[in-house]
Amino acid sequence: MRILITGHQGYIGPVMVRAFKRAGHFVAGLDIGYFRDCLTTPLDVLPDQEITRDIRQISAEDLRGFDCIVHLAALSNDPMGELAPELTLQINYEASVRTAQLAKSAGVRRFIFASSCSLYGAASGDEPLTEAAPFNPVSVYAISKVKSELALRELADDSFTPVYLRNATAFGVSPRMRFDLLLNNLMAWARTAGNIRVTSDGTPWRPLVHIEDIAAAALCSAEAPAGTVHNQAFNIGRNDCNFRIRDIAQAVAREVPEARLDITGETAGDLRSYRVNFDKASNHLPGFSPSWSIERGCRELCDWFNCRHETADSFQSRRYIRLKQLKHLVAERQLTATLRWMDDEESTTNDRWPASTAPANADARV
Ligand SMILES: NC(=O)c1ccc[n+]([C@@H]2O[C@H](COP(=O)([O-])OP(=O)(O)OC[C@H]3O[C@@H](n4cnc5c(N)ncnc54)[C@H](O)[C@@H]3O)[C@@H](O)[C@H]2O)c1
Which residues contact 227 (CB under 8 A, 6 or more apart)? Predict the structure, then answer.
């Protein structure tokens, strides 16, 4: 198949490219390039074609000839959403839906959307949430995923199969690491500062999933007979990977026993807490069998740190924290405040970076 992966120069993207290439597909990547310089290890597998493009500016011609699009491109966490809510909606929602509309008009038959379990938000009740649970988003980022799913549903018909992969919070080693993600962040604290710093009170529930299992889910969704995935949402993760944050911290402590566990409670404002039922993907997404436990993920991350010289400062730098990199590019006047490259003819230099109402430590909030 001919596959287009948007957002292929991010954290999940290189692992996604590798999974599709190893399965024998032709893979093109399309990305605006916000994090292209944030590589930490060389790419082991390259896409067959690379398109540098803002998804807000693509045309049907960019998408013609592909059988399937895996749509990862987005502003990818809550802190970015809080700083620039309108841009999060513009890129994650409006441009995603437009991309799908253009794809459909160009004859692309399948559109795999990287959604998120965060659309369940502040969940009540004791039962883990199935795909039928109500949406309860508590951030602009999560709202952008809900609005996208609802709009994409309207495009589903005999010629166009959207699939919604509601990924849990990711962990794992990528050529473009992120340390603004929960498990990666806790391991980074443990390995660089010798303490495991939980900034909430540790009680919220959070399901986790390895990035290779996310890539496997997208690959299964692309290869499945259309009838098995048509217009379907799948929670992507494992039932035994629903944890309270303090349990995740304890898993890190077991891997790094010399580190001190420190529960600070300073980010009580993060309302997310959800336990998720992952049966549907395991039972109905053909071939999908997520294989990564967090213990294995902790060992993988430890091995990564064993081969590098990271410090508490370096892991919190713009190389690894998405919002810091965007702020840097804007401060350096490489990006406008609407996150378009300065030399892009559609950019206007009058764009102002929105004033932040977020707390000073919000860039790295996990
Ligand atoms: N990482 C997670 O824990 C997680 C969990 C659930 C869902 N997701 C979703 O998976 C996707 C990928 O996440 P990630 O962790 O790799 O994020 P990331 O921030 O590392 O990568 C996102 C990529 O999208 C690109 N991008 C952003 N805006 C763009 C635009 N206007 N035009 C073209 N490219 C653009 C960026 O340059 C970047 O390469 C996102 O949609 C995210 O919401 C991620």
Answer: none
